[in-house]
Specification:
Elements (H helix, E strand, L loop, with lengths): L1 E9 L7 E7 L5 E6 L1 H12 L8 H11 L3 E11 L2 E10 L2 E7 L1 H10 L4 E3 L1 H12 L2
Parallel strand pairs: 4-7
Antiparallel strand pairs: 1-2, 1-7, 2-3, 4-5, 5-6
Helix pairs in contact: 1-3, 2-3
């Protein structure tokens, strides 16, 4: 697994598709992921530390996880099929881990709320970077 960081958020309110860019923490490779507007706003709010008067969906999920005395250990973008990224949210509770299937945008929104590490499977990064080189 390769440690990644959120490098960029591109929000265009006139489009249904927003873009985030993940970059290697210890390298130069990066790649974009197309996400929805709500997820982009959630990620942007988390990065900027903006709170809302009432919990929104990603806040609620974080509150439920913490209410169950668990924590988000990491998020992993673990697959790329038919130009669609797949992710897992890895939770830790009482020394055990549980993997939850997730869209990358939701996993990254949760990760940004608590400064949780983001990883990508080596094969996914290699595939997406080699595809970009062939354009």
């Amino acid at each position: 697994m390769i440690h990644m960081v959120l490098s960029k958020i591109m929000i265009t309110e006139t489009s249904d598709h927003q873009i985030i860019v993940l970059k290697e923490k210890e390298g130069q490779r990066s790649f974009p992921i197309v996400i929805g507007l709500n997820e982009a706003w959630a990620i942007d709010r988390a990065v900027k530390g903006v709170t809302t008067p009432r919990p929104l969906t990603h806040d609620l999920i974080t509150n439920v996880i913490e209410g169950l005395n668990a924590g988000v250990l990491k998020v992993v973008i673990n697959d790329l099929r038919n130009n669609t990224f797949y992710a897992k949210i890895v939770l830790q509770k009482n020394g055990s881990t549980v993997e939850i299937d997730s869209r990358p945008s939701d996993a990254i929104a949760l990760a940004m709320q608590r400064n949780t590490p983001i990883f990508v499977a080596k094969k996914v990064l290699e595939d997406v970077c080699s595809s970009a080189d062939n354009l």
